[in-house]
Predict the structure.
Amino acid sequence: MRFRYTDFVPERHGPQGDSPFENLLDIFQQLLNIAAGDANEALDWMNELDRRYDLTSGDYGMGDFIEDLRKKGYLEDDENKLGEVRITSKTERGLRQKALEDIFGKLKRGGRGRHKTPFAGQGDEKLPETRNWQFGDDLHSLDVTSTLSNAYRRGDLDRLDLREDDFEVYETDHHTSMATVMMIDLSHSMILYGEDRITPARKTALALSELILTRYPGDTLDIVAFGTDAWQVDIKDLPYLNVGPFYTNTRAGLQRSRDLLRRRKNQNKQIFMLTDGKPSCHYEGAKLYRNAFGLDKKIVNKVLDEAVACRREGISITTFMIARDPLLQQFVHQLTEANQGRAYYSGLDDLGSFVFEDFERNRRKNVR
């Protein structure tokens, strides 16, 4: 037996992330998430970290890393800002994939997964039980052994005479599609009190979007950001979500979400709301009514009216509360009761896990 020896190339061996580029890319992606997709800010932070903690070696410096980011399609020149760079669609997709891996860990990719329900019907996961074939059944579910046994039982071994009554198919799990709207609070309180609450919220939205795109292609996901008003956000714009000098117009967020779900043909519809604060404003015509001090009954009642309207339209609301203030939890309890939905009181570190577990658990045929 002969062995052929070549020069050792680290990038070709061992787990991904062993090369200097992959290690730095991992840090760069984390900083991009914190910097709301601002590549220039993330690179400034990396240079400072390199100065303090020696992220790079003498053979591979930060300049080499930035050049590799360009060559590999992660960075491009910003046409609107001379001398600055911006991330590409490849980087945006990479941020979604990394968020999914970080939050959901061992989640298997690929395949055309669906939400299971307790009902038997047309699906792609076979059950042990069989039944007589019916017009429209998928022949991939055919139980060949039972079908041939039925034919032999009627006739003899010398002559096989298959009839329609002989065919049997496996029962399969019924699968259903889900239309989801994720509401993300971008009010100023998401960065107050020394806590960065927008970063885990943004990362959770990135992960959920990647989950649905890769594992549940029959599902839909719409993103609604809400502050003083509410607006729809494209999935490609998720990395750039950031807070503003906003009040919290929860009513407008629910109205926009309900309008989006009304256009969806999916039978199951739900809203995931990521928030840390109380509703503090709503519009009365063109005039903004606001009160940032305490829970204003006038504002709260308008929000509860929307929760009831969602319930009547078969839309469940799950609130993920990134705060533990008793007064705010009382409001969330009222909202949940009005909608007959669910609520979780989550810390900053486990927000994504809560969202994923609830999304996977929501396997009902009909929420009405």
